[in-house]
Amino acid sequence: MSPIVSVFKNPPDGGRGFHRDIRVRWAIEEVGQPYQLRLLTFSEMRRPEYRKSHSFGQMPLYEDGDLVLFESGAIVHHIAQQYPGLLPADRNSRSRAVMWMFAALNTVEPAVSFGSLSLLQQRMHELSVVLGDKEWLDGAFSAGDLLMVSVLRALRGDVPDDKPNLHNYVEHAEARPAFQRALKDSANLVRSA
Fold it and tell me: How far lies 23's CA from each of 59, 76, 78, 165, in Å?
């Protein structure tokens, strides 16, 4: 049986893929595994039966047999550990990919979502310096890049103009076929609603 990913029935972003569930669907698409979507409304997310699985009543929720996970980073990490394609085989490279996963969610995302303009500018500068002219953060595309790009996408084009490498990084990741399939699913949710 395929994993089930709970997502918004009527995505508030109009299906443009700015919610955290895109991270999970993108990861599953990257590793080429089948999955099912469970479409839920905001009121269904507040119901006791949903809150038994997700204590905070949010999206996404990942169910695979008797395994139930919430928090997009934890779900992406689980997928990356279960299937080849998102974590390098080399032990050190693998650890660095996990490090970038944590950096995306704990260092960059708070600056994007809640930080002051000066903190956001600092984080964008630091990330731009680290990325330099590389295609990906640490060699091949990994779950670290997937989460970092997902966080940067939340800026919706407001990456500072003096950071063209960050613009290119996001655009390059968004051009990946797996991302395009996940994004198409988001757009289709709006059309079918």
Answer: 11, 7, 12, 22
Residues 41 and 75 in one domain: yes
This prediction has a pTM of 0.93
Average confidence (pLDDT) per 10 residues, the chain, 193 residues = 90 80 96 95 92 93 97 98 97 98 97 91 95 96 98 80 90 97 74 45
What is the residue type of 65? Answer: G
Instruction: Kindly tell me the burial class for residue 156, based on how many C-beta atoms sit within 10 Å of its own C-beta (0-12, 13-18, 19 or more).
Output: exposed
Q: Do 99 and 168 share a domain, yes or no? A: yes
Tell me how far apart the alpha carbons of residues 112 and 107 are, in angstroms, rounded to a whole number.
9
| Residue among 103, 101, 111, 180 nearest 141 (CA) | 101
Residues 154 and 115 sit within 8 Å (Cβ to Cβ): no
Check which CATH number belongs to the domain holding 109 and give it. Answer: 1.20.1050.10
